[in-house]
């Protein structure tokens, strides 16, 4: 008999928060007395006893070039200890599901490594390795919806002796208990035990409702400048802000920006759900007490916040809702017809309806509320607000500035999609050349010994030549050698194929091969995922194999091995996104 089943989620991500809900409310009977649902974003438990007499379900993702997420590093380091014997985990039963994206070269790399390592340590897998793929037309659910029933079929076998015990089975038609306790704070509250965090601290609040500890730095926006042409379809911005406290970063680092809802959106939302008259009311929010989480740390102490501030800062009403949102809404709608439609949208059998209604048109939570009037007029109780509606998640942006020049942080972002775009992290990295100590660490006497070649690619030289003036200024001062390519430029000769970065690499192959083999060059590839990273890598291999200018002669196999060596020694790095 297993005393508990541990659900391990490795990464700070809303998709993981959703998967935790899906795991525990997937439509199958679950033995809640034997299920400890824990979002372990604070690191894995590192005791040997943790690996004994347990059934653990791991959900894990891959970051960078096949690296484990930060919250998994200590756990992975433990698993790699040479002192561990092949029977270290012989009592452990486990399952692993990877949250991946096949457009990345190291697709679900960490999940595959974890699965193999646990097997090597004697653990027993109860179900095959699950590999979710964001590129599937159903997203991660394409694999997850098929994997979860098989997982629970095996769990039933393990816990079979309690399978038919009614008190151990969750009825999916019964409203689940909320994760948070939300109460109106009024004069009747017991003032002998007042809530903490007044006024509320953003980091502490988010650590509770966002399931991850965060360090928050505020700042002042100094500039917000459009760097694409006014008539270009992409509105790309260079945004500079001054942190209100000292921060340190290096080339390649990124920041998470916490967005807020506009006042108009907050007003619309409160009007729709029927709580506009309570916008200034104080709410007391705390973690719900449950049998498996009796211990409370500082991030789980209650706090006070106004209804308005809660929605403005923490409720993501402008996002495309997950299927779980419709399931939650089905518990509260006052219309039976709407309930049937909400259940259809939440169920895997209605996935086509969900995608056509929600995903393809990018219909937001707020827009859904307009379509379902049965959710208006206080139909959703206050205490369920954070359970029904998604929590606001940070948006990640590469830093496009260097501390060698200024303590101000610059970001490059596309306004319409709030996503990073080509050009992030490239411009200011060249400015590091002005700091001689950086290059002395590589055995060079001064920055003048280090050549920086940038091959920049975009669509149109007059529309989206990002940071054009700065780049040309670097060229004029001999700080940079620049090759610019524009695939859809009107100046390109008519009738010729489009010219991309990989074409420029091959056309300048002798120079690039000399820099790599004779000068020990470091290569950094930044841009959008898809064909580009692979095409660039293939062009580099061709260059290494095909150009003989005094460099070592290489064939394609040699070039492939040398490129692998560069990746291993971090001389070839990619920062690409979807």
Automatic annotation (TrEMBL):
SUPFAM superfamilies: Ferredoxin reductase-like, C-terminal NADP-linked domain, Flavoproteins, Riboflavin synthase domain-like. This is Flavodoxin-like domain-containing protein. It comes from Furculomyces boomerangus. One of its GO terms (cellular component) is cytosol. Its cofactor is FAD; FMN. Pfam families: FAD_binding_1, Flavodoxin_1. GO terms for molecular function: flavin adenine dinucleotide binding; FMN binding; oxidoreductase activity. The keyword Ion transport does not apply. Residues 1-152 form the Flavodoxin-like domain. PANTHER family: NADPH-DEPENDENT DIFLAVIN OXIDOREDUCTASE 1, NITRIC OXIDE SYNTHASE-RELATED. Keywords: FAD, Flavoprotein, FMN, NADP, Oxidoreductase.
């Amino acid at each position: 008999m297993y005393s508990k089943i541990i659900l391990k989620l490795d990464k700070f991500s809303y998709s993981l928060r959703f998967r935790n809900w899906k795991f525990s409310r997937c439509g199958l009977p679950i033995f809640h007395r034997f299920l400890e649902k824990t979002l372990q974003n604070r690191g894995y438990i590192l005791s040997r006893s943790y690996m004994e007499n347990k059934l653990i379900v791991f959900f894990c993702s891959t970051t960078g070039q096949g690296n484990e997420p930060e919250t998994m590093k200590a756990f992975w380091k433990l698993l790699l200890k040479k002192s561990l014997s092949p029977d270290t985990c012989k009592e452990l039963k486990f399952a692993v599901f990877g949250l991946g994206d096949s457009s990345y070269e190291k697709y679900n790399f960490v999940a595959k490594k974890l699965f193999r390592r646990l097997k090597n340590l004697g653990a027993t897998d109860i179900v095959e390795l699950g590999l979710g793929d964001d590129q599937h037309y159903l997203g991660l659910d394409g694999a997850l919806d098929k994997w979860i029933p098989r997982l629970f079929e095996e769990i039933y076998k393990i816990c079979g002796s309690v399978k038919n015990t009614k008190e151990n089975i969750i009825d999916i038609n019964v409203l689940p208990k909320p994760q948070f306790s939300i109460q109106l704070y009024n004069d009747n509250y017991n003032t002998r035990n007042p809530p903490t965090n007044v006024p509320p601290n953003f980091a502490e609040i988010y650590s509770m409702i966002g399931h991850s500890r965060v360090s928050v730095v505020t700042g002042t926006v100094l500039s917000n400048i459009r760097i694409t042409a006014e008539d270009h379809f992409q509105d790309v911005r260079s945004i500079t802000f001054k942190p209100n406290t000292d921060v340190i970063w290096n080339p390649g680092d990124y920041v998470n920006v916490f967005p807020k809802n506009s006042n108009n959106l907050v007003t619309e939302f409160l009007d729709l759900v029927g709580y506009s008259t309570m916008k200034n009311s104080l709410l007391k929010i705390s973690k719900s007490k449950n049998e498996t989480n009796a211990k409370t740390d500082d991030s789980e102490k209650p706090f006070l916040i106004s209804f308005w501030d809660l929605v403005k800062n923490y409720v993501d009403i402008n996002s495309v809702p997950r299927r779980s949102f419709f399931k939650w809404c089905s518990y509260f709608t006052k219309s039976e017809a709407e309930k049937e439609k909400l259940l259809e949208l939440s169920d895997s059998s209605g996935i086509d309806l969900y995608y056509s209604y929600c995903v393809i048109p990018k219909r937001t939570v707020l827009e859904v509320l307009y379509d379902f009037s049965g959710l208006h007029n206080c139909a959703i109780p206050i205490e369920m607000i954070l359970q029904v509606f998604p929590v606001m998640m940070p948006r990640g942006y590469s830093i496009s500035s260097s501390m060698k020049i200024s303590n101000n942080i610059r970001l490059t972002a596309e306004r319409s999609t709030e996503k990073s775009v080509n050009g992030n992290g490239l411009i200011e990295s060249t400015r590091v050349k002005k700091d001689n100590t950086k290059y002395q660490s590589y055995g060079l006497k001064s920055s003048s010994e280090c050549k920086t070649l940038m091959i920049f690619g975009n669509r149109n030289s007059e529309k989206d030549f990002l940071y054009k003036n700065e780049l040309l200024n670097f060229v004029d001062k001999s700080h940079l050698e620049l090759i610019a390519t524009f695939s859809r430029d009107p100046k390109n000769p008519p009738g010729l194929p489009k010219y991309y970065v990989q074409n420029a690499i091959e056309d300048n192959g002798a120079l690039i091969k000399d820099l790599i083999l004779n000068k020990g060059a470091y290569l950094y590839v930044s841009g959008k995922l898809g064909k580009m990273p692979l095409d660039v890598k293939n062009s580099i291999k061709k260059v290494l194999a095909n150009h003989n200018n005094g460099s070592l002669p290489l064939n394609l196999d040699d070039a492939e091995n040398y490129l692998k060596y560069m990746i291993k020694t971090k001389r070839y790095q990619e920062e690409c996104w979807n």
